[in-house]
Amino acid sequence: MRGKSVPRPWFETIFDERYPELFGPLEGDAEEEVEEILALLPLPHGSAIEDLGCGRGRHAIPLARRRYKVTGVDISEKMLGLARTRAEREGVKVEWVREDMRTFCRPGAFDLCLSLFTSFGYFTDAENQKVLVNVGKSLKEGGALLLDLRNAGKGLSRLEDGGKTMEVPAGKLSMSVRFDRRTMRAKAEHVLTRPDGIRISSAFDVRVYSMEELCEMLRGAGMEVKDFYGSLSGDPFTDESPRMVTLAVREKSGPPVH
Question: What domains are defined for the chain?
Answer without folding.
Answer: 10-152+208-250 (3.40.50.150), 155-206 (2.20.25)
